[in-house]
Amino acid sequence: MTKVVTASLKQDGTIWPVASFDSHARPRVSSATAIKCKLEKVTKNLLNPNGEVIISDAICFVDTTIAVGSIFRLGTVASVPDTPDNLFEVVNYNELNDIRNIDTGRWIELNLWNKALPTIV
User: What's the pLDDT band for 2 if we cut at 50, 70, 90?
Assistant: First the structure.
């Protein structure tokens, strides 16, 4: 990403990448990783891979590829409490190359995750 794009990513985020899913389709995640991001709370309709309409609660611009099913929280890894709150689930990942195919913009669409942090493997 260009310096112009990465300069706008001024917020710290914590991501728990999805590692696998259990027999009930609940995610299992890896340990927390720090990312730079820019979170915008907007509501948007989108289609999931099954063609069903889902509503995202926020869009977050990021500097790295993030897997669908991962768990996101705004704030540094050090600021995560023992029982994390304000969690989001990644429901969609997008990337778009510029016209010269030099830079890539990346963003994730998020839904509020009103459950406890999934099992860390």
Answer: low
